[in-house]
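Holo model, zinc ion. Inputs:
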Amino acid sequence: MPSPALAAFIRALPKAELHLHLEGSVTPKLARRLARRRGVVLPGVDLEDEAADLRDAFPFVDFSGFLRLYLAIASCLHEAEDFAEIVEDLGDRLAAQGVGYAEVTFTPALHRHRGLADAPMLEGLAEGRRRVLERHDLLLRWVLDVVRIFPEQAEPTLGFALALQARDPGAVVGLGLGGPEDRPHEVAPLRETFARARAEGLHSLPHAGELDGPVRIWEALRELGAERIGHGVRCLDDPALVEHLVREGIPLEVCPSSNVCLGVVPSLAEHPLPRLLDAGLRVSLGSDDPPLFQTDLQQEYERVADAFGWGPSRLRALAGASIEHAFMPAERARRMQAALAAVPAPPGHEGREAS
Ligand code: ADE
Ligand code: ZN
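Output:
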């Protein structure tokens, strides 16, 4: 673990969180409370045992096991207030970590699939975002995720994005793409939907190159006009792709603990993050589904500092990159960058900023 002084420095850095799923941010405690409130049975979960981790009931070692847990948590969400509350709870935790801006992924298709109407989701997201901005001056914006295994939900997901944008102007930043990447689901049928989203001023922010290799990243770039890549860590398998990403300045949202938990990399020490940076790629850190991977954004910064021996200047640069790669209002970006530059180096690191 880094020194308390370095941990405090990380907390003080204004940061943007660009890879975080709303449904994957629900803590076990909150999931239990919602399940009790709505009378939802979480199979294998003792709703009264506050100390137990939901992972004990839904152990996972791979993506499909992880998805079962993810869906169980999603099934606790029924009414607008449930959605508002999970947004509010997430906002409290992000603000406590020095996050001033977050692009949060939400997956309407998951909830539609279990028969939920759009109205409670639209109302809950808008209300939760409003509460968070008011309480913390933390700006949340949404990425609406298309799921690879539900291509027929792509158009309704864009419809949801536009409805949310109309209800809460400026709330939606883009269209994402998630779900299992290692099964051969063509993205070509999604091309039209993503093109329409871009024509509506939304950004294209798909996951690619996490569970499968460079071919998925090429496809995201060519078919979906990807402007940032979720994960993308497998790009290193293809030097021509790395060169393309560097030349075009396409950033990667890298989530180290997620990659370890889902078996994308064997350990944090072997994570390719240093090699991605050495290759000249633009990278920001994200926490993906933090309680499910027993992490949060603060810990992601702490863990990479520890694993790679990085000091204040490298950590400050990572926080700066997160602000730069965000699609946030220019005035907020300017304010965050100015505050970032003003954070004093921690004791023992003054004068010469260790890398
Ligand atoms: N949905 C939630 N987390 C995800 C991940 N790590 N990859 C793809 N889809 C996801
Ligand atoms: Zn993700």
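The beta strands are 15-21, 99-106, 139-147, 172-178, 203-208, 229-231, 252-254, 283-285. Residues 21, 24, 178-179, 207, 210, 258, 288-289 surround adenine (ligand 1) (CB under 6 Å).
Archived with the compound record.
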